[in-house]
From TrEMBL:
Record's signal peptide: 1-27
Any one cellular-component term (Gene Ontology): cytosol
GO MF annotation list: carbohydrate binding; peptide-N4-(N-acetyl-beta-glucosaminyl)asparagine amidase activity
Gene3D superfamilies the record matches: 2.70.98.10, alpha-1,2-mannosidase, alpha-1,2-mannosidases domains, GH92 mannosidase domain
Domain Glycosyl hydrolase family 92 N-terminal: 34-287
Annotated keywords: Hydrolase, Signal
Protein name, UniProt field: Sugar hydrolase
GO annotation, biological process: carbohydrate metabolic process; glycoprotein catabolic process
SUPFAM superfamilies reported in the protein's UniProt record: Six-hairpin glycosidases
Membrane-crossing residue ranges in chain numbering: none
Domain Glycosyl hydrolase family: from-to ranges: 294-755
């Protein structure tokens, strides 16, 4: 970039500083603008390590895995930017989750004559194998991470393919090289988390094993295979439950006897390589099926470190080129990194031969598709999955849907995933939000899966009475709080999911199902209290629960990770009807303003981990608020949406490690920013519409899955011109505050003319507003 900038400068000395900056900035590719450290500080919970697009392996440093239950929130991704030491490099991580797990198969290099097999205390240098490091020595880009481990003086580099992670360690000259393989290490220290594990070294030097863990997901099995680029001179396996080592061989392999296993719940290995004249490479593959599956995955991605890195770099460059940005450097970095974070999950989980372990703990085979897992659906149905419909090939999106349907078929309960990772159900969060993901994809034209089968799976999930108070919801028209916690939230989220089922059924000609779920889509009204203007929890006898405090946030209370202020706006499929209950458009605007302006000085939310990024009672760090700024569009005041978006972007995002105000939640926080920078947002998945906000980049070019391009341009964009004066679509005036999906995928240009003062006449009429069911389909 320095060289490129100098060339521009030499070629155009007469240009203004602004023009010069714009030219050099616009020449930068999306790949080169990504900063994987964004979100690794604060409460973003992202990791900086190596991963391929939607890769099975997320190979990243862990800075602290010693935290106990209820103390691990800040280390949910294993790495935290303000930690001073690295404990090792493990192969599985969440990107931005609000809960800890994974951190499987931790590897740490060591140098010298003696090796310690305990991680030690981060506050006591030299007390264990962990090492101090400096951010000055770190490098990260999509698919690659490197750091110098200061204590042993080892340069560590990481890259990853779809199903493998590859390490490269450069050891100090003249010092013996070692690797520590610790199967005890894990993120989130549940008591007795390691249920069982095994280690063995095969005659060809391949190390294989497994472990079964009890954590966020129960009884999760993961197998692995490891090969080094140099022969293992000697090794020792230890079970720290007994401290009796299995020494194995000393020197070259002597045959089948060396395949003996060490079994237990606290296994750690020391691998010795002697003094090396070249860097040591280590290739690691994982599988949920068995050790042979891990070996096959290892062999499915040929090549050394540089080969795998180049292949993954090319995959990232191609994927990130789905959107090219022209913007000032900080915004370009934030937008590019948001796109990167949106492409980490759902992650591949089937082996190279298609086999995977499903929610029934049995091995299945994906025929004609790649099975994916890590579905944080309560978060990602809102914007992450709609974004992937615009940026990923149809096959990828079809694979996501087929993975959800395969999980439903294998589910012991016959329902779609709720919050699934590594094929296992966690039952975390509420709703049946695989439903809007499937419906939105189908209604936007994604095929490659059976629509009738999908509808049946959706209906089964929505009618499984034992789940989350659904039995009462179907009988009473709401979830009663005296029988089910978080009842107010569940009522409105079920109602939205039901509306998407009705839309899907209608498209398939199932008018009976459409009528049934259209009725249920109106159940949100049953928990809306006209007297207070808030969504409230009702008891089985029909009375609203008292006392009522719209600011109260408590786990297991009336609402899910929020309160009445956020959840009273959750009627994405019929904001017009909700506004009517509030007293009309002006009343809705006053209430929206009151939400953003609320004085929180006397409130304490320190007990609620996910409540971050407050602007009054708007909570951007958690998902229930994410559509709210766009609701001014629905009230006929789009300039107010533009004001709020500027306020949110400026206060909730920045190009820095603490640049996310809350958990990225497997891409949702990033997807919100990405849509918002483009100038529109999917308030109502399933409507095939996007509410128009305002752009934050000068120009963006989307290369769509069908090969066409859609360009967003912003004339006069600057801090001094935050308002939309005029919008054109393919050169013709667009006098509405919504964009249709078919208009995007047809290709073309959406152009904004920005100005200093609000345009109070643009897109104000009822017909110009985004979708509401009571206004009927357009």
């Amino acid at each position: 970039m320095i060289i490129g900038s100098c060339r521009v400068a030499l070629a155009a000395l007469a240009l203004s500083a602004t023009s010069l900056f714009a030219m050099s900035a616009n020449a930068q590719s999306t790949f080169d603008s990504v900063d994987p450290f964004i979100g690794t500080g604060g409460e973003g919970h992202t990791f900086p390590g190596a991963v391929a697009p939607f890769g099975m392996v997320q190979l990243s440093p862990d800075t602290d895995t010693s935290c106990k239950i209820r103390e691990c929130y800040g280390h949910a991704a294993g790495y935290r930017y303000d930690d001073p030491t690295i404990q090792g490099f493990s192969h599985t991580h969440f990107s931005g989750a609000g809960h800890s797990d994974l951190g499987d198969i931790l590897v740490m290099p060591a140098a010298g004559e003696t090796v310690t097999l305990e991680p030690g205390d981060a506050k006591v240098p030299g007390s264990g194998y962990r090492s101090r490091f400096s951010h000055d020595s770190e490098t990260a880009e999509p698919g690659y991470y490197a750091v110098t481990l200061a204590d042993p003086g080892i340069r560590a580099e990481l890259t990853a393919g779809a199903r493998v992670g590859v390490h490269r360690y450069t050891f100090p000259a003249g010092k013996p090289a070692h690797l520590i393989l610790d199967l005890r290490s894990s993120l989130y220290d549940y008591p007795g988390k390691i249920l069982w594990s095994s280690l063995r070294i095969r005659p060809d030097g391949t190390i294989t094993g497994m472990r079964e863990t009890r954590g966020w997901a129960p009884a999760r099995k993961l197998f692995f295979a490891i090969r080094a680029s140099q022969p293992i001179a000697s090794h020792a396996f230890y079970n720290r439950e007994t401290d009796i080592p299995y020494k194995g061989f000393q020197g070259p392999s002597r045959g089948a006897d060396d395949a003996a296993q060490l079994l237990g719940r606290a296994l750690v290995a020391q691998l010795d390589f002697g003094t090396l004249s070249a860097p040591l490479e280590l290739k690691v593959a994982i599988s949920s099926v068995n050790e042979d599956g891990a070996i096959a995955n290892l062999e499915s991605e040929a090549g050394n470190f540089d080969t795998v890195r180049a292949r993954t770099r090319a995959a990232w460059q191609q994927g990130l080129d789905a959107i090219r940005f022209e913007a000032a450097a900080p915004m370009r970095t934030m937008a590019a990194t948001a796109l990167y974070h949106s492409m980490i999950a759902p992650s591949i989980f089937s082996d190279a031969d298609g086999r995977y372990r499903g929610p029934d703990d049995q091995v299945h085979k994906a025929e004609g598709f790649t099975f994916h897992s890590t579905f944080s659906l309560w978060d990602t149905f809102r914007a992450e999955h709609p974004l992937l419909l615009l940026t990923q090939p149809e096959q990828r999106n079809s694979d996501f849907i087929r993975s959800l349907l395969a999980s439903q078929e294998a589910s012991p309960f016959g329902i779609l995933p709720v919050w699934q990772f590594h094929g296992r159900e966690t039952w975390t969060m509420i709703g049946y939000h695989a439903v809007p993901v499937i419906a939105d994809a189908w209604l936007k034209g994604v095929r490659g899966f059976d629509g009738a089968q999908a509808l049946d799976a959706m209906v089964k999930s929505a009618t499984y009475a034992p789940y989350g108070g659904l039995g009462d919801y179907m009988k009473l028209g709401y979830v009663p709080i005296d029988r089910e916690p978080e009842a107010a939230s569940k009522t409105v989220e079920y109602a939205f999911d039901d509306w998407t089922i009705a839309r899907m059924a209608q498209s398939l000609g199932r008018t009976d199902v459409a009528a049934q779920f259209d009725k249920r889509a109106g159940y949100w009204r049953n928990s809306f209290d006209r007297a207070t203007g808030f969504l409230r929890a009702r008891k089985a006898d029909g009375a609203f629960r008292t006392p009522f405090d719209p600011t109260a946030i408590n786990y297991g209370s009336d609402y899910t990770e929020g309160n009445a202020w956020q959840y009273s706006w959750f009627v994405p499929h019929d904001q017009k009807a909700m506004f009517a209950l509030l007293g009309g458009d002006q009343a809705a605007v006053r209430k929206l303003d009151a939400m953003f302006a609320f004085d929180n000085s006397k409130l304490d939310y320190s007990h609620a981990e996910d409540i971050a990024g407050l602007i009054g009672q708007y909570i951007h760090g958690n998902e229930p608020s994410h559509h709210v700024a766009y609701l001014y569009d629905h009230a006929g005041q789009p300039w107010r949406t533009q004001e709020r978006l500027k306020q949110i972007v400026a206060s909730q995002y920045k190009a820095a490690p603490d640049g996310l105000s809350g958990n990225d939640d497997i891409g949702q926080m990033s997807a919100w920013l990405l849509f918002t920078t483009l100038g529109f947002y999917p308030v109502t998945p399933g409507s095939n519409e996007y509410a128009i906000g305002r752009p934050f980049v000068d120009r963006a070019t989307l290369t769509l899955p069908n090969g066409k391009t859609f360009v967003i341009a912003a004339d006069g964009l600057s801090d001094a011109n935050p308002y939309v004066g005029r919008v054109t679509l393919n050169g013709r005036a667009l006098d509405r505050s919504f964009l249709r999906h078919e208009e995007i995928i047809a290709g073309g240009e959406l152009r904004f003319s920005m100005q200093a003062k609000p345009n109070r006449t643009w897109a104000t009429s009822p017909k110009a507003r985004p979708f509401s069911a009571s206004a009927r389909l357009r």
